[in-house]
Specification:
Blueprint: E1 2-4, E2 18-24, H1 34-47, E3 51-57, E4 69-72, H2 77-89, H3 91-99, E5 104-107, H4 109-114, E6 117-119, E7 125-127, E8 134-151, E9 155-169, E10 179-182, E11 195-197, E12 200-203, H5 209-212, H6 214-229, H7 240-251
Parallel strand pairs: 2-3, 2-4, 4-5, 5-12, 6-8
Antiparallel strand pairs: 1-3, 6-7, 8-9, 8-10, 11-12
Helix pairs in contact: 1-6
The structure holds glutamine.
Glutamine is lined by residues 31, 74-77, 108-109, 162-165.
């Protein structure tokens, strides 16, 4: 299914250009406002002057050829089990797209499955597709609540985490944020959160992430535009409401 973002894009240097966002597994992997990330990303691209198509990809669908940004959300362990076989059927293609520089954002359950494996608390092993040099082990405790973290490229990132999986990074990827200042992050023993490799970002932050962290949207849009059109000229976007939302979210108790 394809959704087209309605309305004329803001006037600007990116007019006449189209970005195609592929939303991975919205039926099974879409909780705590993850769909809101897709919408927010699409609206941000629209505000930069692009026409935007959102393509839903669910198990068994034909994987579209021309995709500029890939985004996917979280789910229960059961949702992860449902999509696992289909994810593996597409793993070589997804890995190739990642290596070629396609920008991607995967959250929580899909972040875990973009790693090498997720071993649940019950001892079931869900094999990941290994885009991230990372593995996840089901923990006894839920790490749940509002989270704030400091990153080199995106400054302060604000969101909401809810996972029991504990993720450990290998040397083949770097954290999204080196220091969690409120909350837990990848695991209880280390201070970092999320992962990055090529132009792929994995994170535990839901809530939705992108409306409160437009720098991450801008990064995904910029990478996509440069790959497709060789250039990106950002529009000036009024972030007054975003900054109010960020200030309010930062004050929320854990
Ligand atoms: N089932 C996974 C965990 O609890 C992922 C949860 C999620 O996507 N929110 O660790």
């Amino acid at each position: 299914m394809t959704h087209t973002i309605a309305g004329t894009p803001a006037a600007g240097p990116n007019n006449g250009k189209t970005l195609r966002i592929l939303q991975l597994y919205p039926k099974d992997m879409n909780i705590y406002g993850d769909w809101g990330n897709t919408l927010s990303l699409a609206r941000r691209a629209h505000a930069h002057g692009f026409d935007v198509d959102i393509i839903d990809y669910n198990p068994g669908d034909e994987f579209p050829q021309d995709v500029d940004i890939i985004i996917g959300g979280g789910g229960q362990d059961s949702g992860q089990t449902v999509i696992q076989e289909d994810l593996h059927a597409n793993s070589e293609h997804l890995k190739q797209l990642a290596e070629d520089g396609t920008p991607m954002l995967v959250i929580c359950g899909l972040y875990q499955l973009f790693g090498k494996e997720f071993r649940t608390r019950e001892g079931e092993v869900l094999k990941g597709i290994g885009i991230f040099d990372a593995h996840t082990v089901g923990g006894d405790e839920r790490l749940i609540g509002n989270i704030v973290e400091e990153s080199k490229d995106f400054g302060t990132i604000i969101g909401f985490e809810n996972h029991s999986g504990l993720t450990y990074l290998g040397s083949g990827c770097t954290p999204l944020a080196a220091t969690v200042t409120k909350g837990e992050g990848n695991n209880k023993a280390e201070t970092h959160e999320g992962a990055r490799v090529h132009n792929v970002i994995g994170t535990y932050l839901h809530g939705s992430l992108l409306p409160k962290n437009p720098k991450i949207s801008d990064y995904l849009i910029e990478q996509a535009a440069k790959r497709k059109y060789g250039e990106f000229t950002p529009a000036t976007i009024d972030d007054t409401l975003v900054n109010k939302a960020r200030a309010s979210a930062m004050k929320r108790p854990r």
